[in-house]
Hints:
The structure holds 2 protein chains of 2 kinds.
Chain A: H1 2-25, E1 39-42, H2 43-52, H3 54-61, E2 65-78, E3 81-87, E4 95-99, H4 101-105, E5 115-125, E6 129-135
Parallel strand pairs in A: 1-2, 4-6
Antiparallel strand pairs in A: 2-3, 2-5, 3-4, 5-6
Helix pairs in contact in A: 2-3
Chain B: H1 2-18, E1 22-35, E2 40-53, E3 58-64, E4 69-70, H2 73-83, E5 91-98, E6 109-119, E7 122-134, E8 138-148, E9 167-178
Amino acid sequence: MKVKKIILVILILGIVGAIIGYKTYNKPHLNIVATKADFNVSANKIIEDFSTDETTANSKYLEKIIAIKGIISDIKIEKEKGIITLKTNDDFASILCHLSEEATNKMSDLKVGESITIKGICTGYLMDVILVKSEF
Amino acid sequence: MKLIITIVTCFLFVAITYSQGKYLTKSGAISFYSKATMEDISADNNQVLSIIDTDNSKMAISILMKSFLFEKALMQEHFNENYVESDKYPKATFKGEILNFDTVNDMVSKKQVKGFLTIHGVSKEITIDANMTKKENSILVTGDFMISLEDFNVKIPAVVAKNIAKKIKVTFNLNHQFYKK
C-alpha cells in the first residue's frame, strides 16, 4: 500500500515537472501590442541618450519596450519586412524600426513626413538606434 | 585630336571616381545555425551595419547581439544571458581587409576577407571566403563560415551539451549601397 502511494506521488511529480518543463521550453515571445511600453520618448531624446553615454543608455533601454515618437523620413520593405526610419536632429543618426509582420501589412497608409509613435524592443545603437518587432 | 583625348580621359576619370568611396548597409543579414543531437537552433539578425571603403579595400561590420531573434523565447534568453552575455558585450564586430578587392566586378567571384572578429569580448584573426559582386551602385557580399564557441570563450554547460553544437555555422548576406553624404 505504502509503495503504491510513493509511486503515485513520484508519478504526479513527474507529470507536473514535465508540464512545467514543456511550458518553459515553449515560453512565448513577449506580445508587444498587448504590453505597455517601459519608456515613452521622442526620437531626439533617445538618440541624445545613446550618443552621449552609450553604456548608461544600454542598461536603461536594452530589451525594453520603447515607444518612440518621431517624424518618418523613410519607408521601405526588405525581405518582406517593413523598415521605418524616424529622423532626428542629428543628420547621421536616426531610429530604425523593423516592423512585425502585422505592422508591415498595414504600412501602406503611412507617408514620409508624417508624425508617428512606434513601439518596439530596443536592441541597441550602431549608427542608429534599432527597434525590432515594432508596432504602430 | 588632343582635345578629344583629353575630354574622353576626363569622362573616363569621372566614371571611375564616381563609384569610389563608401558603400554601406544598415539592414544586412547574419544568421547562425547550430546542429546538435537534441535540437537544431537558428537565429537571424537583420540589422547588420556593414561598411566597405573602396579606397583602401577595408570592410567593417558591427552587429548587436540582442538583435538575434530566435524561434523560441527561452533560447533567446539563454543566448543573451548565459552564453554571449550581451549585457556585458552588446556588440560583435569584424574589421578587416578584402584581399584583391580591385578584381571584384559585376560577375560573382570568390574573394577572401582577412581581419579580426570580436565576439563576447574575444578578438580572433580569421580569413573568411566570400562571394562578391560589384554593380554600379552596390556591392553584394554573401557566404558562410564556421566558428568554434571555444575560441570566443562561450561556455556551454554539460547539461545542454547535446543541444548546442560546438561549431556554429554563420551565414551572411550584405547588400551595400553607395553612400552619398
